[in-house]
């Protein structure tokens, strides 16, 4: 049995309450900063996303994955990442995943300064960021749009709070105008056979961007993160669901931005349960073609940043290839 980790449960209410006093807000900001340093993961409660909207998203996700394989596959024509993909038992992947996804990826054309599709490295991946995925189902689409807007607002707010704790005085970051948003609805099927107990739902990875907001089912524990034990060794720990919370985790871009003060933690899903599981991950990321700098307030006077500035879009494209082991298996088309 994998032991669980006690991640901090942070109450965001003072940040949303106009009457909250400055000390209460400062206390919340400090808890967030500490969690970003120690784990790169925390629970957020009273986050301001309406419960009805969360419920509507979960209902849409459940209904979607309950559809027949023939219906779901209608959503598969959108490319490598976008739309519906069933990774369960696909021999061409390097691990035996048990996982279905509906990924709603924002169109690249949405970005004022987005690099043109067809340009260099992105050519092979043009379908990743093609025209806006049509979602024929109006209820699904409306719910997703409302949820996306609410999470983007929370993302901006959270990043401003974090920037403040890192010492920033300016919050209108050029690279964060037009943030790139992806929503991944994840479905992990029931594991029937005991000897499949260690099969991987979603293999170990870090998220690529800035902040991920994860809504996970509360009836089962399957998410795991890598933490350091007292000896500094990495060890896997389960993340128990906390009803009413969103899990916030930091993506790779937060590391150079904070000059290495924050961590982007490895996580995975192991789902050996006789019940299925849903989760909804919403990614609040930089503009696709943005070079994410190091926040100048994090650099000691006279010192250079510890990391070279990285282009978010290039990082995403590289990671997609690695994640699905596409480069290692050239005949694979996901
Ligand atoms: O299903 C989960 O709990 C994790 C999902 C996740 O890590 C992701 O979609 O990036
Ligand atoms: Fe993730």
Automatic annotation (TrEMBL):
Highest taxon, organism lineage: Eukaryota
Keyword Transmembrane helix: no
Pfam families in the cross-refs: 2OG-FeII_Oxy (PF03171), DIOX_N (PF14226)
UniProt KW keywords: Iron, Metal-binding, Oxidoreductase
GO molecular function: metal ion binding; oxidoreductase activity
Signal peptide as annotated in the record: none
Residue ranges annotated for the Fe2OG dioxygenase domain, each copy included: 179-286
Family per similarity comment: Belongs to the iron/ascorbate-dependent oxidoreductase family.
Full protein name: Fe2OG dioxygenase domain-containing protein
